[in-house]
Design brief:
heterotrimer, A alpha/beta (201), B alpha/beta (261), C alpha/beta (484), B: 261 residues, alpha/beta, four-stranded parallel beta sheet, 8 strands, globular, C: 484 residues, Rossmann fold, 3 domains, six-stranded parallel beta sheet, four-stranded mixed beta sheet
């Protein structure tokens, strides 16, 4: 295949347009007033739920998609670790990632949230964690309230410095409007997504 | 100020009263106005049909004809847009650039002249159809999809000075009417559908009269309206302004609504 | 005006538009998406500056493609991915097929990739007995219906819920008469979940390839690209040459513009960044293969008038705003990518097949105004018409008619007599004859009333009546150029 490579690179070289002006960079907006309220609004617009809770007691401070005690299959990221939540059922570990299919709730710890769009930057700790986030019915993502960035500009400065192998922005639950522009949640991934901002006390 | 009137082929052939209205409006500004009879076509039909090489010879001729004029005014936003954008490509050089800078659409020209306020009422509900060329090529008005700072709309401003004239609201303020040059003929089904949707919007807003800075849009919409016997009167902006601002009814008049020019 | 030669888009569009109710529904649905885009743009005070920034980055990239792709390849390889190169669709398909066959893969899931559509990948794999399931819901629907997508972001926008219900009744063995979108989506979710769990490989497109780190960024709302790549051990990412951007920080302006332009959302539900294969899980270790595809892109790069179209980020905003697309539907274009951007790139790739597409445009210019990277689409469409004609793709009849008209216009006296004759003839001709001769204008429109005299004639008559030229005319005649 290196013949293809050489041909393509040569074609690009031959067709190279003269260099033009450098792009004009837009200075990114700063952190707005009422950032938390804005995050809440964006998350809700994206079909997600929003909660704010004290870090030490958050599992009992939020509304779970099903009552915590009744959840049979729960995955919890180590980083979200809280003494009151323990993984259960398939969330305790599986041999094949596909076996995570029955997962009901997946709890993740996000690195930061972006104010302009309500998205959370998350770096899965393992392939298991990523699969759990996708196969689960319900997603709960906790982020410290102080870990917020105004826009994607500020977000990407941080991401650029971190060099992760896989990372993603998550915003609201999985959704589609492919049938007559009618918005439906839970297309393939999580049916519900809750963002929980944690206040350190 | 020496102003030349350039009347495009289709206005000349199909609606002389628009040309007369334009001529009288220009004279009323006090400028010294001449009509250039040998300027026939701006080249737009060839451009849109994909034969723009024919525009080149036409362009060079136009440059010669209008060399001495301070301003060249046309009652057609699309023709002005064609010259402003393409003349220099067809006949590269400072002369083409000079002409491209001197050619103006009628309302663009009028808005900056210190003319008297219109005196005669035009007591009708009027739908102003935004010419796509006027809006997006000449920057006359603000397109609804843009977030640039708002630009003035000379036609709307001039019409709103006319006593009794009420501009109606539309649901899609700047959707294309579907004329598009050769498109009207080559894609007549979609073109007609687009025009009918525009007419429905104007009628929905209560318009009795539909106007525009482009006669081509109006002939297309008028054709659709007449075939369906819609009670809608289509007039070029020049006709409305002339009716309202010129004291004696000018003889190729809008007043005589039934007749041809 | 003789009837012009029929072109493919206009034929199909005529059939589409004949169903008035459906056309209105389709037009309203897409206008709604355009309105959502407008509302989203309102949220971003520096919207226009962002468009300039994003467009500027893409333009600068066009002058640096060889070194950027070399950098991408090096970085991606270092991260553990394997980078392949494909000159054309056949080479692309062969590369994918080989990767799958070498690993005994028979069940593949694929997320939305217009590039794989362009290459006809699905048909190729099916010929080799490899099952490929499109997992984007809209794509799955059109795949089951055996038709191409009609929009690059909303593949099934041309279908109403009853049609989807009828399809699902057939395919998923569910009770008849279901039209509620929630129920329909739930049915699809169940079916596709089984596909994801059983897939042996996942194929995705790439929205942005970042040279600095060798990262592929994939954007979805459904999470289907992620489900397709999180479970199987093989991920094949197909990327066109134009998708590369220099640095991670460059993702910001594009991602701020993309979802807002496409669907009116500030960001989509999943924005995934793949740098190297997934960490190992299980005995067989994971692989990421990236196929970099040319298929006509380097040729487009060589065209000064059209190369800017390579900046396209496939948001679909131009389709949503286009009054012609909204009233003719994606299938009328007969090309992988419809709408304004399709009408620029497709005729550039295959001039003889798609020479009609630049004419499927009323030149309104709204597309250029909504394009997040400022591709001057309507100017390109206009220029492309003359390019295609000069390359011999215009109907001979039209060329002749226009050359004749141009000839007449170069001679004012000839023009005056021809037009006078023409007008007089039109005025005496029986109306029915005139209407037939003036087709297609007169299919839906009355002809304008033909005046007895042109403005020129009336003006010079009036001038003679008023005793010669007006004072200003006379004064100008003395100084100005003389008419022939």
């Amino acid at each position: 295949m290196s013949e293809a490579r050489d041909t393509i690179l040569a074609a690009l070289e031959a067709a190279r347009p003269p260099a033009g002006p450098e792009p004009e960079r837009v200075p990114p907006p700063g952190m707005p007033e009422g950032a938390i309220a804005r995050i809440e609004q964006r998350v809700q617009e994206a079909g997600g739920r929003f909660a704010r809770a004290p870090a030490a007691r958050w599992p009992t401070s939020i509304e779970w998609p099903t009552p915590l005690a009744q959840i049979r299959h729960l995955y919890c990221s180590g980083a979200a670790g809280h003494p009151e939540i323990a993984p259960r059922g398939v969330g305790e570990g599986v041999h094949d990632l596909q076996d995570l299919d029955p997962l009901e709730v997946c709890v993740l710890r996000g690195r930061f949230v972006v104010v302009e769009n309500g998205a959370v930057w998350h770096v899965p700790a393992s392939p298991l964690e990523r699969a759990a986030a996708l196969l689960t019915d319900h997603l709960v993502v906790v982020v410290r309230a102080e870990d917020k960035r105004a826009t994607l500009h500020q977000a990407y400065e941080e991401i650029a410095a971190s060099q992760t192998a896989f990372g993603w922005f998550l915003c609201g639950p999985s959704k589609t409007a492919d049938i007559e522009q009618s918005l439906v949640f839970g297309a393939h991934g999580a049916r519900t997504m809750q963002l929980v901002l944690l206040d350190e006390e | 100020m020496r102003v030349a009137l350039f009347i495009p082929c289709y206005v000349d052939q199909l609606r002389p009263r628009v040309a007369f209205a334009t001529l009288e409006l220009l004279r009323a500004t006090g400028a010294s106005v001449r009509f250039e009879p040998d300027a026939l076509c701006c080249g737009q039909p060839f451009l849109t049909a994909g034969e723009e090489r024919h525009g080149r010879a036409l362009g060079r001729r136009l440059i010669d004809l209008f060399r001495e004029d301070d301003a060249i005014v046309m009652p057609s936003a699309s023709c002005v847009a064609t010259l402003r954008r393409h003349l220099e490509r067809w006949a590269p050089g400072p002369e083409a650039r000079s002409m491209a800078e001197r050619v103006l659409e009628l309302t663009e020209f009028l808005i900056d002249q210190d003319t008297e306020t219109p005196a005669l009422p035009f007591p009708h509900r009027v739908g102003l159809h935004a010419s796509c060329h006027g809006l997006r090529e000449l920057g006359l008005g603000t397109a609804t999809e843009t977030r640039e700072p708002p630009r003035r709309d000379p036609a709307a401003q001039l019409l709103s000075r006319v006593p009794g004239l009420e501009l109606v609201d539309l649901t899609r303020r700047d959707e294309c009417c579907g004329f598009g040059g050769i498109f009207a003929v080559q894609e007549d089904a979609v073109s007609s559908r687009m025009g009918l949707d525009r007419l429905a919007d104007h009628r929905g807003g209560g318009a009795e009269v539909l106007t525009s800075t482009d006669l081509s849009c109006l002939l297309h919409l008028e054709g659709l309206a007449q075939r369906r016997k819609m009670p809608m009167r289509l007039l070029h902006v020049a006709e409305i302004l002339a009716e309202s601002s010129l004291e004696k009814g000018w003889d190729h008049a809008v007043r005589d609504r039934g007749s041809l020019s | 005006m003789a009837e012009s030669r029929r072109t493919v888009h206009s034929d199909r569009a005529r059939r589409f538009v004949a169903d008035e109710a459906r056309t209105r529904w389709h037009d309203e649905a897409l206008w709604f998406v355009r309105s959502k885009r407008d509302a989203a743009a309102d949220q971003v005070p520096d919207w226009e500056a962002l468009r300039t920034e994003a467009g500027g980055i893409k333009r600068a990239v066009l002058s640096r493609l060889p070194e950027l792709w070399r950098q991408f390849e090096e970085e991606a390889t270092q991260a553990g991915a394997v980078v392949h190169w494909a000159r054309d669709a056949a080479e692309h398909n062969q590369t994918v097929a080989s990767l799958l066959e070498e690993r005994g893969v028979r069940r593949v899931v694929k997320s939305k990739s217009m590039l794989t559509e362009e290459c006809g990948l699905n048909a190729d794999l099916e010929r080799r007995n490899i099952e490929v399931v499109d997992t984007d819901l809209g794509e799955r629907i059109v795949q089951l219906r055996n038709e191409p997508p009609s929009h690059i972001v909303m593949p099934a926008i041309h279908l109403q819920r009853e049609q989807v219900g009828a399809l699902f009744e057939q395919e998923f063995d569910c009770p008849p008469g279901i039209t509620d979108p929630d129920t329909l989506v739930a049915l699809a979710r169940k079916d596709l979940r089984a596909r994801f769990l059983g897939a042996q490989a996942g194929i995705t497109g790439v929205n942005f390839a970042v040279a600095e780190t060798g990262t592929c960024v994939v954007v979805t709302n459904e999470g289907n690209a992620d489900l397709g790549t999180a479970l199987p051990e093989l991920h094949i990412a197909c990327v066109g040459l134009e998708k590369i951007i220099p640095e991670t920080r460059d993702l910001a302006p594009f991602l701020r513009l993309l979802a807002r332009s496409a669907t009116g959302q500030p960001i989509s539900a999943y924005t995934s960044h793949f740098r190297g294969p997934r960490a190992d899980w299980g005995p067989r270790g994971s692989e990421l293969h990236i196929i970099v595809v040319d298929n006509g892109r380097s040729r487009l790069l060589a065209e000064p008038a059209f190369r800017e179209a390579l900046a396209c980020i496939r948001c679909g905003a131009c389709l949503n705003t286009c009054p012609v697309y909204r009233r003719s539907g994606g299938h009328s274009y007969g090309a992988t990518i419809p709408g304004p951007i399709g009408s620029v790139v497709e005729p550039n790739r295959s001039p003889s097949r798609h020479s009609d597409l630049p004419h499927a445009c009323s030149l309104c210019g709204s597309c250029s105004d909504v394009c997040p990277v400022r591709v001057p689409l309507h100017h390109q469409l206009l220029t492309l018409r003359s390019h295609l004609s000069e390359a011999g793709h215009s109907p001979r009849g039209r060329r002749w008619a226009l050359a004749t008209t141009a000839g007449i216009l170069r001679h004012p006296r000839l023009f005056r007599s021809v037009s006078r004759w023409g007008r007089q003839l039109a005025r005496v001709m029986p109306e029915r004859w005139l209407e037939r001769w003036a087709l297609p204008w007169t299919r839906e429109r009355a002809l304008p009333p033909i005046p007895a005299q042109s403005f020129r004639e009336l003006y010079s008559t009036r001038a003679r009546r008023e005793g010669g030229l007006s004072k200003s005319d006379r004064a100008r005649r003395e100084d100005g150029p003389q008419a022939p």
